[in-house]
Amino acid sequence: MIPEAIKHRDDTHAVVVVPVLKQARAARSAQADGAITTSRSPESRLEEAKGLALAIDLDVVNGSIVPISDPRPATLLGTGKIEEIRALLDEFNAGLVIVDHPLTPVQQRNLEKEWNAKVIDRTGLILEIFGRRASTKEGTLQVELAHLNYQKGRLVRSWTHLERQRGGAGFMGGPGETQIEADRRLLQERIIRLERELEQVVRTRQLHRAKRRKVPHPIVALVGYTNAGKSTLFNRITGAGVLAEDMLFATLDPTLRRMKLPHGRTVILSDTVGFISDLPTHLVAAFRATLEEVLEADLILHVRDLSDDDNQAQSADVMRILGDLGIGEAEGAERILEVWNKIDRLEPETHDAIVQKASTTENVIAVSAKSGEGVDRLMNEISRRLSGVLTETTITLPVDKLALLPWLYNHAIVDGREDNEDGTVTLDVRLTETEAAELERRMGHGPKPQREDWE
């Protein structure tokens, strides 16, 4: 019988447990002195786990780091630590334990029995956050699909309703499928339906991308660890009203806006979902259609939170996910511009050192999205980077401008030509921003340059 005190535990009160395996600690200590640390420290993992819990309005009453030398297959943790956490649950009247580590279905079930409380692992917690944040139809479908794939492996026989149903005809029917098999079949049917719906969403997104390719606007994508300040920077340079809070995964669905660069060129800026270490594979697969916006981008802004002591490890996690998407190191060096954000939070001496280092480091701009410091330099660098990007457009030359045809064939890539009955010529061309501006001038639509060097 469950005691009354446990029956009435508050499941909004959470205890956070961060298991640290012995081999992980050994790997950290084996790193050479002065080497860049890319593995997460236990303290930063604990703070991040607390932040994830706060993102869904949980009250974290206790958090602890648990060293594990010998992981138990049945419970992961040892009996002594299980007893210790049970005492904490009683002390704080907590009904939820968050384990910042993957748990097998059996481990999750056994720990729930030991503690008489709900237990969720890191994957379950991230799925819960994504479920609350999704606002568009695509986001909702992606999260539900990821959640169902996660739950499919969690159907363990722990409740009495998962017993075998009666099968066959008549009163004395033979054994039919178990309830757990029926539940798994229903889950699989729902997964298949969701995948079909998502296929339609993906086709629609591909059509939108195809339409954008026909418009001569390069795409700039913001990527970065969650809470690095992407949405704040997005709002700063576009004037959009995207939700931007000091919270993990404050925004989930991708947002696209047009913006003008200093020299007048229009680009499309895309704000994507924040990355995180150990991102569940279910989510990576489900959100692949969304993350493909990054693959289409002409320039990728990797936003880093320089005020976070763990930013090196966060950067490594982001680059790992970009690699999984197909953006290798060689390609990334040409397409990725690092944006060192939140320099306003640094001490004056550190701030000056970071700004100086960024100014002498290739592919790096230091900014404060909150105060606006360095944003003008960032915009100028984006404009410089995209000045040579080829854009597609369709132009029609009137009869009195047909003399421009040789210039076009010399300075642009002509993909298609149609000679019209009225004597005009329609061309599908690809050209750079500078060449586009010169074409506008020659067509009589733009200002004359200061010097004539196009002949």
According to CATH, what is the topology of the largest domain? Rossmann fold
- Counting DSSP E segments of at least 2 residues, the number of strands comes to 15
- According to CATH, what is the class of the largest domain? Alpha Beta
Gap between N and C termini: 92 Å
Features:
single chain, 455 residues, alpha/beta, Rossmann fold, 4 domains, 6-stranded mixed sheet, 4-stranded parallel sheet, 15 strands, 44% helix, elongated, disordered N terminus, disordered C terminus
Description:
- Its cofactor is Mg(2+).
- Residues 436-455 are annotated as: Disordered.
- This is GTPase HflX.
- InterPro entries: G_HFLX_dom, GTP-bd, GTP-bd_M, GTPase_HflX, GTPase_HflX_N, GTPase_HflX_N_sf, HflX_C, P-loop_NTPase.
- The protein has 455 residues and is an alpha/beta fold.
- Helix content is 44%, strand content 21%.
- The protein is built from 17 helices and 15 strands.
- The radius of gyration is 28 Å and the shape is elongated.
- It starts with a helix and ends in a 12-residue tail after the last helix.
